[in-house]
Predict the structure.
Amino acid sequence: MEVSYNALLTRATQTHRLEKHEIIRLLNARGEEERSLFAAADAVRADWVGDAVHLRGLIEFSNYCRNDCLYCGLRRSKQQLQRYRMEPGEILSVAKAGAKLGYRTIVLQSGDDWWYTSTKLAQLVEKIKRLDVAVTLSIGERTRAEYRDLRLAGADRYLLKQETSDPALYARLHPGQSYHHRRQCLEWLAELGYQVGSGTMVGLPGQTVETLADDLLFLQTQGVDMAGIGPFIPHPQTPLSCCPPGNTGQTLRTIAVARLLLPWAHLPATTALAALDKNGHRKGLAAGANVIMPDLTPQPYHGAYDIYPGKGAPLPADYHQAIRDLVRQAGRVVATTPGHSLKPVKSKDNRGEGTLDDL
Ligand code: SF4
């Protein structure tokens, strides 16, 4: 006997377990059912991670990349791009400015750029950690030894988005890259004690609602501490330029179901969502998100981190205050803690702030 939509939603908020066909049903919700989904996700968010919104200051320190992902405006084949690398001292200065602005986490992000050796980056991480901030790295695939060295230098977290859990779709979108190696990297990061973030892109060409359901189950199976879920936005200078973009509704529904399945997770209202929809941050926060990643990258670099259209748009003079105002207008508060993992753990470790309750 098919359970009612409301009964399904109630069970999801209580057990955080869903079968694939149930996830698909939620992802297909519209109208009143969609509103109920967002309300349920918002309630789970309030129960598990509270009203605080963590602002993570993002420094995009290099737009060089050795990879050629079909959707990305930084892909190595793209000629029409002024490439840059910030010097470590310059990155540190920006991190200091971010800490002064009150950011409790600094996110260091780049393309897969091995010009920055793990030795160089470890020295930088050590210096940034002295600012009393958490450090998140988002620098792509490295060797296990490099991940280890960066963790030993003090890096707390690592973002490595899988983008899709479908191996065939992954292979089409990521020429020359290995789906299994990326999963291997995620496993290494977890073994090394990082708080691990992964994520998915909504609306990729060839993706179906079934794929999205698998993506969400993948994130749950991995037990990620963070999950970035943002829309695909076609870049005009990539092979996917003619493909339609992802849409706000499907992205929000995916965030909401992620909140039901991963109640502890830090989920950003992504910059890509805000680029697609001017109210994207606010809508994301209302659908289960609890993180925003304001951009600290200075000009001229900011404009050249052209990963999707709109990403490098000039920021208003009151940008950082405006984000804080947005959080308050959403009825939430800006977090004052670094916002470490809240994932329940079965054995004691010193990584998270979470409870020890099992799911
Ligand atoms: S998505 Fe990341 S790895 Fe792929 S081309 Fe862009 S910057 Fe490089």
